[in-house]
Design goal:
single chain, Oxidized Rhodanese, domain 1, Thiosulphate_STrfase_CS, globular, Rhodanese-like domain-containing protein, about 35% helix, alpha/beta
C-alpha cells in the first residue's frame, strides 16, 4: 500500500459527479483564451482584484475591472439576467475570485472561476492587455 492507494478510489459514478460539479463552477485559462480568440464570448470576464493601476499594467484581454468589494446588486443590474460571469484574481495564492464568485452566486448570478488567475495565464504564456480598456485577445 502507498499513500496513493491507502484510501480506496471512489466509484465511477461518484467520481463523475465530483468532476462534473467542479467543472460547473470553474474553467481554465486555456478554455477562456480559446473562447476569447473566437471573438464572441458567451460570458463576461471580470478582473476582481487589485487597484485600477494594477489592472492598467496587466490584465487578461477582454476582462473588465470590477473588484469583488464593488460587486453589488445595483452594479450587476447593468447586465441581463442569466449572464454568466467568469472571475479571476492574481492566482492560486489569492482568494479574490472566490470572494467575487460567492457574491455573484449569492445575488443569483451564474458564475465560474478561471482557475490559475493571472499566474495561470502567464504560465500558459498567453498575452496580456494593458491600459484602462479591456483589450482584445487576437487569434
Amino acid at each position: 500500500m502507498s499513500y496513493v492507494t491507502d484510501i480506496p478510489t471512489a466509484s465511477a459514478e461518484i467520481a463523475r459527479d465530483h468532476f462534473l460539479h467542479r467543472l460547473s463552477v470553474e474553467t481554465d485559462c486555456s478554455d477562456v483564451a480559446a473562447t476569447l480568440r473566437g471573438g464572441e464570448p458567451d460570458f463576461v470576464l471580470l478582473h476582481v482584484v487589485g487597484s485600477p493601476q494594477a489592472y492598467e499594467r496587466r490584465h487578461v484581454p477582454g476582462a473588465l475591472h470590477l473588484p469583488h468589494r464593488d460587486i453589488s446588486a445595483e452594479r450587476m443590474a447593468q447586465w441581463p439576467a442569466g449572464t454568466l460571469f467568469v472571475v479571476y484574481c492574481a492566482g492560486p495564492h489569492c482568494n479574490g475570485a472566490d470572494r467575487a464568485a460567492l457574491k455573484l452566486a449569492s445575488l443569483g448570478m451564474p458564475v465560474k472561476i478561471m482557475i490559475g488567475g493571472i499566474t495561470g495565464w502567464q504560465d500558459e504564456e498567453l498575452p496580456f492587455a494593458s491600459g484602462k480598456e479591456p483589450g482584445v485577445l487576437h487569434a
